[in-house]
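Input C-alpha cells:
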C-alpha cells in the first residue's frame, strides 16, 4: 500500500469516515491492554483479523434465513426469561430453531469481544445481527419492519417502545457501517421518546427517518 503524502492546506480537504472514531477507540484499548512489543506487527494482525471477521460475516449473509426461523429463536430465548444467555445455551437454541451452524458461529465471532471471558451475551444483540441474513431485509427500512413484527419484538399492533428501539438500533449501527453517526443522531432526536412506555410504529419511524434525512 502506498501512503498518500500530498499535503493538506484546509479543512475542506479532510473527509473523516463516520466509524473512524469507534475503530480507533477499540484499537487503542487493545494496544493498551496487550502492550505489544512490536506495535506494527500487532496492528497488522489486529486489522487483518477485523477484516477477516467482516468478510466471514458477509459470506454467511449470502445464505438467507427465513423469518420463521428467527421468530422461533426469539420465542425460545424469551421463554428463558433472561436478557443474557450462556453462549452454549444460545448455540443450543439456534440449533433447535433451525439457524444454520455456520451463521451461528459467524455471528458469535462478530459480536463477542475478543477479551470477553464471561461466556454470556445479550441474545437480542445476536438476533439483531441475524436480521442481516433474513430474506427481504436489504436495507434499514426492511430491518425496522422485521424488528417491529409481532413475531419479533413488536406488540400485536407492530409497535415497539421507542427507548427499546433506540437501544437496539444503536447497537445495530455498530455492526452496520452504512448507518452514519449523523443520521442516527438526527433519527433519535426526531423520535424523541417522552417516557419508557412511548411506542413507535413503522409509520412513525418513516416520518422520523424523513425528518432526519432532511436535516
Amino acid at each position: 500500500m502506498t501512503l498518500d503524502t500530498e499535503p493538506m492546506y484546509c479543512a475542506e480537504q479532510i473527509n473523516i469516515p463516520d466509524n473512524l472514531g469507534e475503530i480507533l477507540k477499540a484499537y487503542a484499548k487493545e494496544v493498551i491492554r496487550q502492550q505489544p512489543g512490536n506495535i506494527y506487527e500487532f496492528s497488522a494482525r489486529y486489522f487483518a483479523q477485523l477484516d477477516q471477521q467482516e468478510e466471514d460475516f458477509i459470506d454467511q449473509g449470502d445464505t438467507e434465513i427465513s423469518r420463521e426461523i428467527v421468530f422461533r429463536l426469539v420465542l425460545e430465548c424469551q421463554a428463558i426469561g433472561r436478557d443474557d444467555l450462556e453462549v452454549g445455551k444460545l448455540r443450543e437454541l439456534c440449533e433447535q430453531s433451525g439457524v444454520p451452524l455456520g451463521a451461528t458461529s459467524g455471528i458469535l465471532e462478530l459480536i463477542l469481544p475478543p477479551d470477553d471471558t464471561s461466556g454470556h451475551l445479550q441474545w437480542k444483540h445476536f438476533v439483531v445481527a441475524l436480521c442481516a441474513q433474513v430474506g427481504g431485509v436489504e436495507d434499514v427500512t426492511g430491518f425496522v419492519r422485521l424488528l417491529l413484527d409481532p413475531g419479533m419484538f413488536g406488540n400485536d399492533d407492530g409497535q415497539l417502545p421507542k427507548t427499546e428501539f433506540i437501544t437496539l438500533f444503536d447497537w445495530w449501527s455498530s455492526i452496520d457501517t452504512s448507518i452514519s453517526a449523523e443520521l442516527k443522531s438526527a433519527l433519535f432526536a426526531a423520535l424523541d421518546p417522552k417516557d419508557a412506555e412511548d411506542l413507535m410504529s413503522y409509520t412513525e419511524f418513516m416520518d422520523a427517518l424523513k425528518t432526519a434525512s432532511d436535516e
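The chain has two domains: 48-136, 139-174+185-215. The chain has ten helices and four strands.
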